[in-house]
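Deviation from plan, reported transparently: manganese (II) ion complex.
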Amino acid sequence: MTDELKAQRPAPRASSQVSVIEPEHKDLGGFSVKRVLPARTHRMVGPFIFFDHFGPADFPPGEGIQVRPHPHIGIATISYLFEGQIVHRDSLGYTQVIRPGAVNLMTSGAGIVHSERAGDDLDTESRLHGLQLWIALPDELEHTDPGFIHYPAEDIPGFELGAARLRLIMGAWLGYQSPVHQHSPTIYAECSLPAEARVNLPMEHAEIAVYGVSGRVLANGHELCSGTMLALNGAGEIELEATQDSRLVIIGGDPVGERHIWWNLVARDKADIERAKAAWKAGEFARVPGDDEFIPLPD
Ligand code: MN
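Because the crystal trials were delayed, the predicted structure below was used instead.
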């Protein structure tokens, strides 16, 4: 092989940037949430600006998730459960139960209000475990009309690569295409790997990260356990070696530019956040049919 040919090969992973992101632990009304993004050291991964891993949480009868109506601007929220159920209601009039393996994609654009509450398992012991991520909308869609789409679990492509079982939540990858709408080039996938399995996952996007939901793996030589994210920007592949039965998610995509984030509001221009704050305080956002409560604007 000549030096010229060598020069055309992808950069070795030693030159990729690796950062370890540890979550902040939040209490979201009775159960614990790991807030991974935005981190002080790492604001975004591709278009992903917010990453919450909630539970697994066990609720006694009569208790469960109760997130009262609140507004969003500038993002799409994508919800994905491993266990349990959540009832989504929004100001467009959608009421939708989400269950494990399904995807709720809510595009806020210029503004939407929604609540997330326990379902018909409220009266029994229940368990909840899942992820909610926010995807910053690209400049041209920042003020688009709001929308909501539910994708049942059977619509999400599942496939195997070696010992890895993969589900493609968003994007195109390894010859598969997720039906979940993407506003900009994005990848979001779940990966399950049995103990001692190894697999190499080719990655195409500029910014990528792998997050440990459960178990323990080596990812490109770095130990990754539950609750930790490893950003691997520039890595042409993710080399995984499971030391335990493990569940991971991979996120990434093309960067959309810097964003301001305050409470549930995301914008390129801080003035949009100030306008949304004033509108929420003045009760000018649309109401959620069937859910009359609301979260007041934080001080
Ligand atoms: Mn929300």
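The chain has a mean pLDDT of 93. We consider this an acceptable substitute for the interim report.
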